[in-house]
Design goal:
Elements lengths: L3 E6 L3 H12 L1 H8 L3 E7 L16 E2 L2 H5 L6 E4 L5 H12 L3 E4 L2 H18 L3 E2 L10 H8 L5 E7 L2 H13 L3 H10 L8 H4 L2 H15 L9 E2 L7 H10 L1 E11 L4 E11 L11 E8 L3 E8 L3 H20 L28 E10 L5 H11 L4 E6 L8 E7 L2 E2 H11 L10 E5 L10
Helix pairs in contact: 1-12, 4-5, 5-10, 7-8, 13-14
Length: 441
């Protein structure tokens, strides 16, 4: 059979993993495919920086155009990151009739609808397994393995940097800044970690998963996003006193009419399986109407784990090419994606349990004022921790609520934060615990 030729644009961390797998494991892929999967060209602007592997210099070019113009290249792999240049490269490759594999979740979250439509019109395919969860086969699972199910909900730890920081804070008592610095020293966090710690990277991935789960267009803008940079060590300590762990979660639910879509630090019970996903690992807890709850867990990023996902896409596309199959499976797993977005539930309509931490002056009557405002806004208190008197200017008052509506919570906290006895803006965390009531705390 005719060999399948691959052009790789972007020879960074993941690109090195892809190149290593294609050059060192070619015989194994040949056995699986019945034909060769050949790395024909590698393009990168920087060819001087030492890499953890060597390539034949004849494969290297600084010009991505050399790959796009090569009629022998069947599949283009885009691994340059970013949005604008990557979008242009992908769209040109599609226009040239080349299949594309990308791990660029930012690109797909913003322009995935456009890219998938262009690919369908051109009769080519887009592989994107590496865009969510590194080496975890999340895309494959949602498109095929769970195709018999209506996905009821997904809870995901989708950012290894944020999870590493929260793990170090919980396990070692490190501050946020200390844990962030350690993450940067270990290579888990970028010099500018804002996409990771502010929840944006997680939301990019959630947007893709939602489209796969519900058969709707990608809608990144509809996701409510909060990060972990405002969390303090004391919040993790209080959470544990109540029997919870704090994780940055991507959460989506289908209630039959509307879809929940939110990313924020969340308190989950210590005995929940996601509470024990630590370090830089990722996990997604999925509930289907037929299969019930399942967990997909593994390394969410890295040279070889994400490289594994990219090469898995290459193998799948190569199988289709060798058998003359085109577009056997639609990009988002459903033949006709609804052109009308299902309504995403506004965050104000969310009903859940809450954690509040007030910084209050230690004087009589403060707690009653706070409780009064909460009551006026239909918020019922399930439990309270008020630390003893000390020399501090303010002391923490921590509350867990029964279920309340987000709009009421926001209104109540706006009033409470105006009280002269409240020193700082109240910290709010949402709780995911269906069994929560006052008797269990």
């Amino acid at each position: 059979m005719k060999p399948v030729q691959v052009g790789l644009i972007g020879w960074g961390t993941v690109g090195c993993g892809v190149a290593r797998l294609l050059t060192e494991s070619g015989n194994r892929y040949h056995q699986r495919l019945g034909t060769q999967l050949i790395l024909r060209k590698v393009a990168d602007l920087d060819l001087e920086t030492p890499r953890p592997m060597n390539l034949d210099p004849r494969l290297l070019t600084r010009q991505a155009q050399d790959i796009l113009d090569d009629p022998e290249i069947d599949i283009v792999v885009e691994l340059i990151g970013g949005v604008d240049a990557a979008r242009e490269l992908v769209m040109v490759a599609i226009a040239r009739g080349k299949h594309v594999v990308t791990a660029n979740k930012h690109l797909l979250a913003l322009y995935g609808n456009e890219i998938f439509q262009a690919a369908a019109q051109a009769g080519v395919e887009i592989g994107f397994e590496g865009s969510v969860g590194g080496g975890i086969p999340l895309i494959l699972s949602l498109r095929q393995g769970l195709a018999a199910n209506r996905i009821q909900e997904m809870f995901g730890i989708l950012n290894g940097t944020a999870n590493y920081i929260l793990t170090r804070m919980a396990a070692e008592g490190a501050s946020f800044q200390q844990a962030l610095q350690e993450a940067q020293d270990q290579g888990y966090a970028e010099a500018d970690p804002s996409l990771d710690v502010e929840g944006t990277d997680t939301a990019h991935k959630l947007a893709i998963l939602m489209a796969l789960a519900y058969g709707v267009p990608i809608n990144f803008e509809a996701i409510a996003i909060e990060g972990i940079s405002d969390l303090e060590l004391v919040d993790l300590q209080f959470a544990r006193e109540f029997g919870y762990q704090i994780k940055l979660l991507a959460i989506t639910r289908d209630d039959g009419e509307r879809i929940e879509a939110r990313v924020h630090p969340t308190m989950i019970p210590l005995d929940h399986i996601l509470a024990n996903v630590n370090g830089a690992y990722n996990a997604v807890y999925i509930t289907g109407d037929a299969v019930g709850p399942i967990l997909l867990y593994g390394q969410g990023a890295g040279m070889m784990s994400t490289g594994s996902a990219v090469v898995a896409d290459l193998i799948e596309l190569a199988r289709n090419l060798t058998h003359g199959i085109k577009r056997r499976l639609p990009a988002l797993g459903i033949e006709h994606v609804s052109q009308t977005n299902r309504e995403v539930k506004p965050l104000d309509d969310l009903i859940t349990n809450y954690y509040f931490r007030f910084a209050a002056q230690d004087r009589p009557g403060v707690l009653s004022k706070v409780a009064g405002i909460l009551g006026q806004n239909q918020i019922s208190i399930a439990a309270v921790i008020q630390k003893g008197r000390g020399l501090q200017e303010s002391v923490p008052i921590v509350m867990i609520t029964h279920e309340a509506r987000e709009a009421h919570v926001r209104q109540a906290l706006a009033a409470i934060d105006q009280l002269p006895e409240i020193a700082h803006k109240t910290i709010l965390l949402r709780i995911e615990d269906p069994g929560l009531d006052a008797a269990q705390i």
